[in-house]
């Protein structure tokens, strides 16, 4: 390997801005697009919209002041002419473009005031013998003050001086029909004249596929490695004793579905290991995750360990508290309730019971994990709707139950990951989510977790009928609500979501007005109101009244978005549905269709609809499967937004696109397993190139 050339400190700083810190980073700084300087287009053939290279003689050069100061030149080739226009220019450029000079110009042709013109073309002196470029000219993402030729030169140096040996064995490449790594990189940086720039720019070319595959493979490998790291961490082994779990299963009014049984087995197995479980339980709205969580809690409790069960909102947490109390109190287990809204004295009392180990099950909101709450012997943490919490909270939570268990090995990991100085035991974690995540995202973002999926709804559910109704027909919807409620059923009316700065106020106002409107329009019904600003006790009272059937209609803000379970509610009206996202619409709709009665979801929308809103309503109207909806959502919005910026670990993918490269991801996933099993040295070399090849710093 030759010595890397010296780079000035200013250039280094600019490179750093582009995320280029190491020589190897230059290799993977790939072009955004290409310019074709491999041939000349006669001016006669140039059409508006085309980017072409032309050659001719300057016949006129003038600085004009209207509409603003600009340099305007005429370029002539035979009898054909083209205007070149520069809004900012240097004296040197003016000289270069003096009358009589022969030049080559490349740029996009458009129709201007004086006929065809190019604005800010790239120009250089040329005569008939000036050779054409042999390859397409790469245009790289760059930053102010770092010119393309400088970047190009640095990258070409790196291409020549860094060995581009393939990390992957030939048979694997052959099997997956993948191009050679070095060839791919060289092609992307300097494509031959006959390579399609369009294919390159769309990232469809075989060379791109290779780079994307490599990236995905590195991601999969690194997550597998992290996953293995976990098996070096310590957690209490909580094997099944079939005591409480069996007792609960016997008393349930229903049998677990096949899917519930399967995920329960997976969880029970993980809990009995002496390494922390980190499992995500994915299941569509209403698929029955709560009972699975209860069983997991019981297995920990059977082993004398404590369980913390946390939910993102007070309503949801309380619902779990009530449900689990109903199931567990008969078994002699009384949960303790802890939330931010408790009085100080009550809070202290709850914390006391948790600290002494007097209670083995604590249910509540995030308050459970505040510094003042010390667990006595925490064995399992359950988090419902985990996507509502940030990554930080997930870590806090993990640290909560840590206890010192003495020394463990400190061997450095082979790919340079953290040494495992693990000397503490941590609780198992079960995370639950009803946000259906497309498989590609789950595999990517959650790959450090094990995922269990409940892919079956409990039997006896009637499908929900979805209707799209324009707000102009609001009165008819009132009638439908009246009819349903008078027939003994219950309904939700969800008020619009407001996204302005004083959102809470407006949302509240809206809910209050809608409540009033409905109370007046439907005098024979009992109409309740629940919103985020209601004091917890009142909110709980309203929810309880609705659950008990004392209220026919519940007007609510999106506080009911997650988890509320009232089987007799069979009609859901979503006001201003056009303002809501797909995931939210799906969650809300899932509040009905939980009982045997035929259910309906009315999506009231206000005209005119934006293109995106129309698309969303179409998707929700046509689909009921949460995973299909999530997949469509991914296509409409892209992965970053789907997961929320704070969690989008997928942003780490620079080249692969999860909406388009699902096939590559699948191949990468399978290959990662295969390599780790059969050829760990290959896996190591690959990870090294993509993740750990970070010692070869650029030099001044
Ligand atoms: P989610 O997965 O959305 O949290 P829940 O756990 O709230 O769903 O369950 C939804 C409803 O289905 C609850 O009323 C629950 O008691 C009921 N349920 C759960 N499992 C079954 C089953 N196997 N058979 C019948 N009903 C079930
Ligand atoms: Mg739930």
CATH superfamily of the domain at 243-410 and 418-454: P-loop containing nucleotide triphosphate hydrolases
User: How would a textbook summarize the main sheet?
Assistant: 7 strands, parallel
User: What is the overall number of helices?
Assistant: 24
Average pLDDT, to the nearest integer?
84
| Largest sheet strand order | 11-12-10-13-16-9-17
Which of globular, elongated, flat, extended, rod-shaped describes the shape?
Answer: globular
CATH architecture of the domain at 243-410 and 418-454: 3-Layer(aba) Sandwich
Number-wise, the strands total: 23
The helix/strand class is alpha/beta
Question: Which fold name is given in CATH as the topology of the domain at 243-410 and 418-454?
Answer: Rossmann fold
Hetero groups in this structure are:
adenosine-5'-diphosphate, magnesium ion
The CATH class designation of the domain at 243-410 and 418-454 is: Alpha Beta
Oligomer: single chain
Runs in which pLDDT lies below 50 for 5 or more consecutive residues are 405-422, 640-651, 693-697
Helicity, in percent?
A: 25-40%
Q: Give the radius of gyration.
A: 32 Å
Query: How large is the share of residues in beta strands?
Result: 15-25%
Distance between the termini: 18 Å
Set out the fold topology:
Elements lengths: L8 H9 L5 H5 L5 E3 L15 E14 L5 E8 L2 E7 L4 H6 L5 E11 L2 E5 L2 E4 L11 E3 L8 H14 L8 H6 L5 H9 L7 H5 L4 H25 L13 H8 L6 H14 L6 E6 L5 H14 L3 E5 L3 H15 L7 E3 L5 H13 L4 E4 L13 E6 L7 H10 L2 E2 L19 E2 L2 E6 L5 H7 L4 E5 L9 E7 L3 H13 L3 E5 L8 H19 L5 E4 L5 H12 L5 E4 L12 E6 L7 H8 L9 E7 L5 H12 L3 H12 L1 H5 L18 H17 L1 H13 L8
Parallel strand pairs: 4-6, 9-16, 9-17, 10-12, 10-13, 11-12, 13-16, 18-23, 19-21, 19-22, 20-21, 22-23
Antiparallel strand pairs: 1-8, 2-3, 2-5, 3-4, 5-6, 5-7, 14-15
This protein binds adenosine-5'-diphosphate (ADP) and magnesium ion.
